[in-house]
C-alpha cells in the first residue's frame, strides 16, 4: 500500500483510522471526513463540498490507500499536483504525477510504475486523462483489477458560472460510462446551490451522495473598509496586522497588479506580480517562489489561486470588489489553511460596483447569465454594506445559519448608522431637477450651494435643490451618492460622462414609503485595529519562540535539501505544537498532530535533539 510503512496495530477506528494516524499523523477525523472516506472506500460515488483547509485531500487519499490498485486524481494545476505528491511521498505513500513539466523519460517511468501497479495515487490533468494513450492505460488497470477510484479535485471547474471554468473538465462525464464500476469523488471548496447542481449534472453525479460541510472558517477575520487611498490602506494593514507574513493581494486588472506589486516593493514589502499576461515561465517561477519562500506577498488577478496549497498564507486582501460572494469566499479561503489565525481584508468603493455592472452589461454572455451575474453582485454589495456580522451574511449565502462570530470588523467594532432618508431624497430630487445629466461632483456643489462656474453657467443656482444640503460636507454627500449607486436607486450613464439618472427603484424612497440608513464611518484607533480575537488555534501565551524559530530554521534547511516547500516537511501548526509540548521521546513525538510514522522515523531524532538543546 505505502512503501516501508510498518503495519499499524489493530484499532477500534478501523483501517481508515489506522491510515489517518500512522500515515498522516492525525488522531481523529474532522467533521464529515470519516463518513466520506468510508463511503468512497466502500465503492460509492460522492460529491463533497468542504471549505479550503477543511481536509478535502484526505477524503480521497485515504480511500486510495484502502482500496486495491491506483487512484487517479484529476487536478487542474501543475503546482498543486507537485506539492501534493511531495507531501504524500514525505508521508511514505507511493504517489506520482504526470504533467507537461516532465521530460519524456520521467513520464515513461511514471507510466510504467502505474502499469505494473506500483502507485497508490497518480495525479493527472484532465487534458492528459482524456488522451487515447492514457485511456488505454486506464483500461489496463481496470482489466487487471487495479483501478481504485477517480478523484476530481476543484470540481467547480466544470461550472461555466465560475471564473475557474475549464472546458476540459466537461469531458470527464465519460468516466462513469467507460468505467461504471469505479467509484468517483468530486470535491470543491465552494459552490452555491446552482453551481452544485451543475457539477452533479455535468459529471453524471446526480445520484451520488452529497456531503456538505460547514462553510465557516472561524480562524479568518473579515474586514471591509471604504476606499480612501487604497494602496496606503493596504500597506498600513500589512505593516500593522501581518508584518513579514505571506499573503495574496487581488486586483482586477493586470496593470493594477504590476503597479501595486512595484509600489509595495518600493515600500519594503517583498511582493511579486502574477497575471495571465505574463509568460508561462515567469508565472511558474513566481508561483514557485511564493510556495517555497516565507513572507512573500503575491499581487495577482484571479488567474492566481486555484490549487494554491500553501497552508501558511496569513492574509488575503482585495483592492477591487470580487464578482460574487462565491468568488470572494473562495479567494479569501486561501488564507489560514493551517487553521491558525488569518485575515481577509478588502477595500471597496461604489465605483467598483459600477465597473462590475458595466463589465456584465458589455459582455457577450447570454441575458440569463448576465441576470444571474447581476444578482450575485448585488448579494456581494449587501455583504460589504452590512452593519451586522460579516460571517453571518457570508454563511447565509450558502444556506447556513450562525450566531455573530465576534471576530469580524463589525462584531469587534460595531458600526454606527445614521438616518440618511432625507439626505437621499434631496440627492434624488437634485438628480431630477438638473435633468439627470450630471455626475456626483456637480450635484454635490448644487446641494451645498456652491457658486462654481459650472453651477452658474447652467443656471443651477436658481433651482429648488440649490443649497438644500449645506448641512452635510462633501465627504458625507459622496457617501450618500455612492450608496445610491450601489443600491441601484440611481444609475451611471457611461455614454454621458458618468451622469447619474434615476431608476424605478428610487420611487418608493421619493414617495416616503421606505427609509435609507447608512454606516457612519469613524476612525479607528491603532490599538483597536490591532486587537485580535482569540481563535481555537491560537497559541497560548509563553510559547517558547526560540524553540519555534529553531524548528522553523531546521525545517527550511531540510526542505531546501529535499527540494520541497517547507510546509511539505511540517506545517507551522505542527511545529508550534512541538514547541508547546516539548516532547522528550519518540513516543511523545508520536502524539503530535501531523507526524505520521514515516516522518517520525525520518525526522524524529533531529526534532528531539533540537527540543533537548533549546532552553
UniProtKB/TrEMBL annotation:
The keyword Transport does not apply. Residues 37-209 form the Helicase ATP-binding domain. Keywords: ATP-binding, DNA damage, DNA recombination, DNA repair, DNA-binding, Helicase, Hydrolase, Isomerase, Metal-binding, Nucleotide-binding, Zinc. One of its GO terms (biological process) is SOS response. GO terms for cellular component: bacterial nucleoid; cytoplasm; replisome. It catalyses: Couples ATP hydrolysis with the unwinding of duplex DNA by translocating in the 3'-5' direction. GO terms for molecular function: 3'-5' DNA helicase activity; ATP binding; DNA binding; four-way junction helicase activity; hydrolase activity; metal ion binding. Pfam families: DEAD (PF00270), Helicase_C (PF00271), HRDC (PF00570), RecQ_Zn_bind (PF16124), RQC (PF09382). It is an enzyme of class 5 (isomerase). Its EC number is 5.6.2.4. SMART domains: DEXDc, HELICc, HRDC, RQC. Its cofactor is Mg(2+); Zn(2+). Residues 541-615 form the HRDC domain. Residues 230-380 form the Helicase C-terminal domain. Belongs to the helicase family. RecQ subfamily. This is DNA helicase RecQ. It comes from Thauera chlorobenzoica. The lineage of its organism: Bacteria, Pseudomonadati, Pseudomonadota, Betaproteobacteria, Rhodocyclales.
